[in-house]
Structure formats: structure tokens, C-alpha cells
Amino acid sequence: MPIPNVGLFSMICYHAQDLSPIMPPPVPAAALPAAGAPAPVTPLRLALPVGHHDAYTTAHTRITPVVAPGAGGAAAPQNLGGAPAPGGDTIYLPYVGGGITSVRLPTPAPAGVTSFFTAGMDGCRVFVDNIPGSADLIVYHANAGVGHPAPNDYSDQQTAVAAAAMSAQIGAARGHYAAVLPAPGPTPWLSIAKPRYFRIAGNEERRKRAWLRGAPPGVPLGRTRPSFMVGTTFFAHYTGLWTFGYQAWGRNEYSRPLFAPARYNQGRNVVKPYGVLECVTLA
């Protein structure tokens, strides 16, 4: 079962699960295999100045995806998960806290493969690189592990510390590939980060704040601004070429000031239902 197409993604919220606990564990290595060498039988864990780079192949990442109801039933985001399967139709890239993961996506795709997705994002960054002399691509999932947002940051704000950490991670990971690929090594093609994929949530929080809306009960300690419960799923479909996109979803929560009319019988504290904020094809 391939992951849902873009049309379905635009209607139903999907929360991509962290499947790393059931994926093959990476094994420490000094470098990636040289060009022409046999593919590693396990994912490889390469050291970074801070954290590590887990490099996967498609043999390590094929799954059969499964969509299951979320904890809140039909009104909640649906859980997009799956189980490892050598003949699975989807390539799944795990993430690692405080590090970066990668997988080389072949073009043409392996027989039977039609989809790709990675673990859900709420601050991570995804990069996609071209490979000189090849139609293959490399996809990376970076997690800063540092520079967490302050209580009153808007959903689309990324701290400079977090952004710098992920820039260092992708630079080091590209260096690992550059050592075994033709010059000049991987070349950047596209990337997607928190300020882009949570832009609608951040703009809505600012709009509500301008109307003097505050934080409802139960939001993180110290927050006084309207809040979004948000998530993002980054995915791709293969139809002769890889086409990438993302779905951002969320739920708006805020409190009305005492002088504001409690319109539509929503009361002073408002919790909106989950909905798709945007579903975008990137390339």
C-alpha cells in the first residue's frame, strides 16, 4: 500500500511515526564504502563533531506502510507508520536525535517502490541533494538536538543555535558522501525547514495575538500567546521521477480577553479541530 497521494494528503492529517526502534540499527564505521564496493549489510553510523550521521541504503529502509487512527479518533491526525519489509513499496528514512540521517534514492526506483517518507517534523530540517553523473538523489533528515524554542516563540521560529547545528550536520554528512562520489560531491537541490513548513501556523498565531488573544489553559508553562499543536510530514512519490512535498497540519488553541464577545458559543478558551494547513509539492 503506497502512502496517500497528494490529493488525499490535502484532506486528512497524517502524523508520520518514528519507526527508528524497529529499523535496522546502525553500526559504527569510519567512512562510507568506496564507489563500486559492495553495499553495507547494515546502516552505518559515522561520527560528527557533535552527534553522528546514520547512512542508510534502500535495502535497510523498505517498509510496508500502515495508516492507523490517532489517539483522538477520527478527529485527530492519522498515524502514518509501517513495518520493515524487503519488498515494501515505500522507503522510510528514520531520524536520530541530535544528528542527521540519510538515504540514497535510486532513479529508477527499486522494483515495486512507489513512495518515500521520513519521521514527522516539528523543528527538524530535510535536505535533498543531486549526485554528479547520476539521476539518484540523497535525502537527509537533520535534528539539531539543541536550541529548543522559548515558551513564547511562534511556531515558525527557529533559533539560531538550532539552525547552525543543522547546517553543521549537513556540511559534515555531505563531506562523507563527497569522499566516495565524483567531484564535486553532493550538490544541494532543495531543503525545507521550520520557518517554511510552519509558516501558516506562525502567521495565524501572530494574527490572533494582534487581536489580543492569549494562551489557553494547559499550554507549555510560561507561554502567554496563542498556540498551535502542529506537525509536518515530508513525503515523495515515484512515477519515473521522484516528486517531493510536505503536509503541515495543526490545531489552534487560544483564549479570548474578557471584553471580547464569546462568538459562536466557543467560550473564552477555544480549541479548534485539527486540520491541514497546507499540502505543497516542492519539486
Could you walk me through the main structural features you see in this protein, from its secondary elements to its overall organization?
- It is built from five helices and 16 strands.
- It has 283 residues and is an alpha+beta fold.
- It is globular, with a radius of gyration of 20 Å.
- It has helices at residues 6-9, 58-61, 160-178, 194-197, 199-210; strands at residues 14-16, 27-28, 44-47, 52-56, 62-68, 78-84, 90-93, 100-105, 115-118, 125-131, 134-142, 187-192, 227-238, 242-255, 269-271, 275-281.
Compile the SSE list and pairings.
Layout: H1 6-9, E1 14-16, E2 27-28, E3 44-47, E4 52-56, H2 58-61, E5 62-68, E6 78-84, E7 90-93, E8 100-105, E9 115-118, E10 125-131, E11 134-142, H3 160-178, E12 187-192, H4 194-197, H5 199-210, E13 227-238, E14 242-255, E15 269-271, E16 275-281
Parallel strand pairs: 1-6, 2-3, 4-8, 7-9
Antiparallel strand pairs: 3-4, 5-6, 5-7, 8-11, 9-13, 10-11, 10-12, 13-14, 14-15, 14-16
List keywords for this structure.
283 residues, alpha+beta, nine-stranded mixed sheet, 16 strands, globular
- The helix content is 10-25%
From the structure provided, what is the oligomeric state, counting identical versus distinct chains?
Answer: single chain
Structural class: alpha+beta
Label the overall shape: globular
DSSP strand count: 16
The profile of the biggest β sheet is:
9 strands, mixed
Task: Quickly count the helices.
Answer: 5
Radius of gyration: 20 Å
- Which series of helices and strands comes N to C? HEEEEHEEEEEEEHEHHEEEE
Euclidean distance between termini CA atoms: 23 Å
**Uncertain segments:** none
